[in-house]
Structure formats: C-alpha cells, structure tokens
Amino acid sequence: MNSVFGAAARSVRALSALPRLTQPGGGAACSRLLCSAEGQKSLEEMVKKDKVVVFMKGTPAQPMCGFSNAVVQILRMHGVDNYAAYNVLDDQDLRQGVKTFSNWPTIPQVFFNGEFVGGCDILLQMHQSGDLVEELEKLGIRSALLDAEKEQ
Amino acid sequence: MAVTADLIREKLISELAAVHVEVEDTSPNRCAASFKVLIVSPQFEGKPLLQRHRLVNTCLANELKEIHAFEQKTLTPEQWEKQKQQ
C-alpha cells in the first residue's frame, strides 16, 4: 500500500506546479487535484450523488474506447439512461484519481449507490448471469429487459 | 522487464494456484500493451466477482502499471468444467 500513497503524493507535488484546469460545463470537483485527500473526498461525493455513476473514456453519446462503449451499451439495454458519466479523457487528475480512489487499475469504472461495482468485465458477467437486473432492482431501477421478456 | 503473456501466466500460476490459465495478447488490436486472460483457480471459490478480480489485480499489480488494457475472466475449477461442457 505504501507505494500507492507514495505515487499519489509524488503526483500531487508534480501537479501542483501545473496551472489548474477548468472543466468546461463540468462540476468544479473535476478541476481539483483528485489524488489529494481533498480530491478523494470530492470523488466520494461524486459517486454518491447519483445512483449510477460511470467513469469512462468519452461520453455515452460518443464512447472513445471499446470497454467504455460496452458499459454504455449494457446500461442502455437495461433502459438505464439517467446516469452520471464522467469523461476521464478530459481530466488527467480524474483519470488517475479515480484509480486511486477505487484501487482499480483500469477505466471504465461503475459505481452503484456510491459503491464500486467493477469494470466492463464484471458488468458484462453480471448482465449475462442476470445479476445486473437484480442489482438495478436494489437501486429502485426496473430493468427494461424485464418488460422485454413480458412482451414475448 | 517487459510484460509478456508468459510472465503473466507464470505469476498467476505461482501466486494464485491457477490450475488453468489462458493469456491472449490483444496488443495488436490496440495501440499499447493489452491482454485478455482466463484464470481458473480454486482460490476463487466462494468469492464474489469483484473480490476475484481484485485478487488478480493485486497479483499483477506491477504488470498492470505497464499494461494499457486488461480483460479478465475468473472461474473456479467447477465453473470451468461446466463451461467446457457447454
């Protein structure tokens, strides 16, 4: 664990020399140094603000990576269109900060009710096993697939 | 040391007691080092998906720093047998 904190501390020192980036149209949270303790707290708020939160490359309308796209497609299949999506390509602090926050090395990252669920692999397996429908139900979200089944 | 499929395979076998490992180097499809792995290990027994993946991530922590993209499928020996029969 020491190496993680060491790396985070080093990146904070390095980043403090850079001018702050402002996020056009985005929340102020994205422009803070997300590897710092304060930044990690911002991330905590970000993941708790909405029931479904996705950190991805690109946007739901235009994903910039196959794995991020897969997450978007799966959520769409279940009729989940109302979720918070943060584009890590717009913000290097966010890109590194979220990896530190969830202790997970890759993007995309999916959170349900503030809790880390996993990346694309896990979401895909949950979708295939039927677990995703159940998890969405726990969030109070009715999966569109349930209605699709009824129509058949 | 460059990350190779063999290195990944050896680590998974020695540290996770993997009984079956398939490592596919998917780098040619992407712009940087990428791998797709299938790991079968009794250590996954009774663990939810996220915990399994975290086990793998911890095992390959150093390698993942160099890797750009990583896909993993984690099965117990029982799940692997079932899958093979399908």
TrEMBL record, chain B:
<comment type="similarity">
    <text>Belongs to the BolA/IbaG family.</text>
</comment>
<protein>
    <submittedName>
        <fullName>BolA-like protein 2</fullName>
    </submittedName>
</protein>
<dbReference type="Pfam" id="PF01722">
    <property type="entry name" value="BolA"/>
</dbReference>
<dbReference type="GO" id="GO:0005634">
    <property type="term" value="C:nucleus"/>
</dbReference>
<dbReference type="InterPro" id="IPR036065">
    <property type="entry name" value="BolA-like_sf"/>
</dbReference>
<dbReference type="GO" id="GO:0005829">
    <property type="term" value="C:cytosol"/>
</dbReference>
<dbReference type="InterPro" id="IPR045115">
    <property type="entry name" value="BOL2"/>
</dbReference>
<dbReference type="GO" id="GO:0051537">
    <property type="term" value="F:2 iron, 2 sulfur cluster binding"/>
</dbReference>
<dbReference type="GO" id="GO:0051604">
    <property type="term" value="P:protein maturation"/>
</dbReference>
<dbReference type="InterPro" id="IPR002634">
    <property type="entry name" value="BolA"/>
</dbReference>
<dbReference type="GO" id="GO:0006879">
    <property type="term" value="P:intracellular iron ion homeostasis"/>
</dbReference>
